[in-house]
Design goal:
single chain; about 240 residues; mainly alpha; 9 helices; about 80% helix; flat
Length: about 240
C-alpha cells in the first residue's frame, strides 16, 4: 500500500519508492537514539552555562573578580554569536588536536552545541529575569529573604514563564542543528540519510524524506512546548 502511495508522487519510480521505504526506519532510529539525546544533553549543559552567565551579568558588581568575570562572559558571548556553529564544532573536533586536545565525535558535538546554546540562552534568561518588576525583589527583601532566596522562590518561577517560549524554540532549533554533527562523523539522522543517498546516488527522495522526518519530530516538539507552557501558566497562577 505504501509503495503504491509513493508511486503517485511525480518524481517517484519503483526504485526510489523502495529506497524511501528501506531508508525510513534507519533514519528514524538514528533520530531517536542519537539526534534527540544529543539535543537534550547539549541543551541541558547549555542551560547550565546560560543561567550561570545570566546571573553573573545581572548580579550587582562586587569587586575585581566580578568585573573580570563580566569581561570574560561578554567576550564569550560575542565570539559565539559572531561565528557560525559549523565553525565552532569544527574547531572543537578538528582544531583542538593541534594543541594536544583530542575529543571523540559525540562529546565534541555536545561541547560545540552546549557552548552555542549557553551564549544565546544566557541572553534569553537575562532578559526574562530583568523583565520581572524590581518590586518583586524588594518584596522578598522586605520579608527577610536573601538575594538567592528571593531569586529562587520569587523571581525564578516568574522568569521561567517568560523564558520558556523562546527557550523551547531554541531547543527545537538545536534539534534541527544536530544535523551539523555529521561533519564530525556523528552518525545522527542526517548522516544516515547521507550514507543512504551516497550509496544509491539518488539524493532527492532521501533528502526529502529526511526533511519530512525532521518536520514530524519538530511538530511533536511544538505540541509538547504548548503543553509545558500551559502547565507552567497554571502553576504560576496558583
Amino acid at each position: 500500500m505504501l509503495n503504491n502511495f509513493l508511486m503517485l508522487l511525480p518524481f517517484m519510480n519503483e526504485a526510489r519508492a523502495e529506497l524511501v521505504i528501506n531508508g525510513f526506519f534507519p533514519m528514524v532510529k538514528a533520530t531517536i537514539l542519537v539526534s534527540i539525546p544529543l539535543a537534550i544533553v547539549s541543551f541541558f549543559f547549555g542551560m547550565i552555562i546560560a543561567v550561570t552567565i545570566a546571573l553573573i551579568r545581572i548580579t550587582p558588581q562586587r569587586g575585581w573578580f566580578h568585573r573580570i568575570s563580566l569581561i570574560i562572559v561578554k567576550l564569550y558571548i560575542s565570539i559565539i554569536r559572531g561565528t557560525p556553529m559549523l565553525v565552532q564544532i569544527s574547531i572543537v573536533f578538528y582544531g583542538l588536536p593541534a594543541i594536544g586536545i583530542f575529543i571523540d565525535p559525540i562529546p565534541a558535538a555536545i561541547v560545540g552545541f552546549s557552548l552555542n546554546v549557553g551564549a544565546y540562552g544566557s541572553e534569553t534568561v537575562r532578559a526574562a529575569i530583568q523583565a520581572i518588576p524590581k518590586g518583586q525583589w524588594e518584596a522578598g527583601y522586605t520579608i527577610g529573604m536573601s538575594y538567592l532566596q528571593t531569586f529562587r522562590r520569587i523571581i525564578a518561577p516568574q522568569a521561567c514563564k517568560v523564558a520558556i517560549p523562546p527557550l523551547s524554540n531554541s531547543f527545537i532549533g538545536l534539534f534541527k542543528d544536530t544535523s551539523l554533527a555529521s561533519i564530525v562523523t556523528v552518525t545522527e539522522m542526517f548522516r544516515v540519510a547521507q550514507q543512504i543517498a551516497n550509496a544509491s546516488y539518488d539524493f532527492l527522495p532521501v533528502y526529502i524524506e529526511a526533511g519530512l522526518i525532521y518536520w514530524c519530530f519538530c511538530f511533536f516538539l511544538f505540541v509538547l512546548q504548548n503543553k509545558i507552557e500551559s502547565h507552567l501558566n497554571r502553576y504560576i497562577a496558583h
